[in-house]
């Protein structure tokens, strides 16, 4: 079983693009398992990951395609959490959502996806932002 960790934020279009990237893997309906991770940076109300639209959308899409899913929630710096969960769950691949950013925006604000790509010790699948 090939285990993929999807690092999801609130954006439904990006979550859908990530789910579709996993569905496009060979034999995804029988040989792929997906852990859907949402990292809360601030969660004073105690929300669960399934209350996040992007997580729900990805789970529905994957399950409709026959992919086994599990939801994981954590809190902390998103890039660090993604890398830690990837190790803890011994996933084969991490799937992150990309988005278009200006060079200045990348320099000023950083990028979770970029940080994961550069520091992960396993393959990273980058899905588009889901926008045409």
What does this 3D model show about the protein?
The protein has 132 residues and is an alpha/beta fold. It has one domain: Rossmann fold (3-Layer(aba) Sandwich), CATH 3.40.50. Helices cover 41% and strands 24% of the residues. It has 6 helices and 5 strands, in the order βααβαβαβααβ. A 5-stranded parallel β-sheet has the order 3-2-1-4-5, sandwiched between helices. Helix 4 packs across helix 6. The N and C termini lie far apart (32 Å). The mean pLDDT is 88.
Write the layout of secondary structure elements.
Elements (H helix, E strand, L loop, with lengths): L1 E6 L4 H12 L4 H4 E9 L12 H12 L3 E8 L2 H11 L4 E5 L5 H7 L2 H8 L4 E4 L5
Parallel strand pairs: 1-2, 1-4, 2-3, 4-5
Helix pairs in contact: 1-3, 4-6
Give me a quick take on this structure:
With 132 residues, the protein is an alpha/beta fold. The protein has helices spanning 12-23, 28-31, 53-64, 78-88, 103-109, 112-119, and strands spanning 2-7, 32-40, 68-75, 93-97, 124-127.
């Amino acid at each position: 079983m090939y285990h993929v960790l999807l690092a999801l934020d609130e954006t439904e279009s990006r979550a859908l693009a990530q789910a579709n990237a996993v569905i496009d893997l060979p034999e995804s309906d029988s040989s792929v398992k997906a852990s859907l991770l949402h990292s809360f940076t601030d969660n004073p109300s105690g929300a669960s990951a399934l209350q996040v639209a992007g997580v729900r959308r990805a789970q529905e899409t994957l399950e409709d395609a026959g992919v086994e899913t599990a939801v994981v929630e954590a809190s902390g710096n998103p890039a660090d959490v993604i890398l830690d969960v990837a190790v803890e769950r011994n996933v084969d691949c991490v799937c992150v959502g990309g988005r278009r950013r200006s060079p200045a925006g990348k320099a000023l604000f950083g990028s979770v996806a970029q940080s994961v790509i550069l520091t992960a010790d396993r393959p990273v699948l980058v899905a588009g932002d889901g926008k045409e």
